Amino acid sequence: MMKLIVLSLALTSGSASFFTNNTRLQKNMWENFKSEYGREFEIVEDIERFEIFVENLKIIDERNAAEATAGGSGQHGINKFADISQAEFKKRYLTTVVPEEMLNRPRLGGLKPVQSGSTADWTGTYTTPVKDQGYCGSCWAFSVTEQLESDSMRTLGTDYILSPQQLVSCDSSDAGCNGGWPTTAYDYIEEAGGMVQETDYPYSSGSGTTGTCDSSSITDPVLTVTNYYTLSSETDMASHVVSTGPVAIALDASAWSSYTGGILSTCGTSIDHAVQAVGVDTSSYWKVRNSWGTSWGESGYIRLAYGDNTCGLTYIPTYVDAALA
């Protein structure tokens, strides 16, 4: 019992390794995980998931070591993804499709630089609550939906919560749960005459099924996109976020499967996820809203180190001109 107590205290303090060769301690951690996240498996799958869980403990330690070496404060630990493999995580959550031709669109640059230490946080002012895409690679749809919501709040004074399901099921230029791209989704919204509210077309793809478009649910759009803009650099992003509002971004989230808090400074730059930057402290970090529910990260958010293009976040930052449909 004393060993279990000591291990628990060490893990919560972030000062010790998560992986252990002690099978009894591994099993105890596994049972605690299942209890906390409501997991129940048949015997064979339980054995398989336990093996994945133990492998993920090693990955957590590797990521924490890399973060410490880089001098970052990001923390990795056991979260709701601890029982799925990295391959499963990528397939279920990281399926943004990157059309290279979209990168040739002119970008806005030369915005007035902000001073170091400039801050902004639009959470609750120009944002709706954190959403959950479930086991569907629909991050692109959530990122676009959230950006239109934010820009309409900012310029039109609306408070609509829009329907990501409309984009997932009805935007034929993208691939639903198999991925998509923000700018093609903006084009769809304009061509379709706008987006309907979540109450008109509730989200139903959380189990991983794209579904067919229900045309009867999209007859009453409330907001549309008349244009979108792509920013040129991290400093231009900061200028916009500090002075104006959030921006939709695409980045590499492959290391986010174990994120639990802090300012993350180590991750890749292979673009595989779409989210929204809702705040910034130009002396320290970006505040980013994810679409994996409030039980992930810092109540659904992650902080990324500022100034180093962390996770490739400058790949294609966008905002829109919103209009009533």
UniProtKB/TrEMBL annotation:
Domain Cathepsin propeptide inhibitor, which positions? 30-89
**Which terms are listed as keywords in the entry?**
Disulfide bond, Signal, Zymogen
For this protein, the record's PROSITE patterns field holds: THIOL_PROTEASE_CYS, THIOL_PROTEASE_HIS
Which residues belong to the signal peptide in this entry?
1-16
A Pfam family cross-referenced in the UniProt record is Inhibitor_I29
A molecular function GO annotation: cysteine-type peptidase activity
Q: Which GO terms describe its biological process?
A: proteolysis
Residue ranges annotated for the Peptidase C1A papain C-terminal domain, each copy included: 116-321
Keyword Signal among UniProt keywords: yes
Q: Which family does it belong to?
A: Belongs to the peptidase C1 family.
Its name, as the record gives it, is Uncharacterized protein
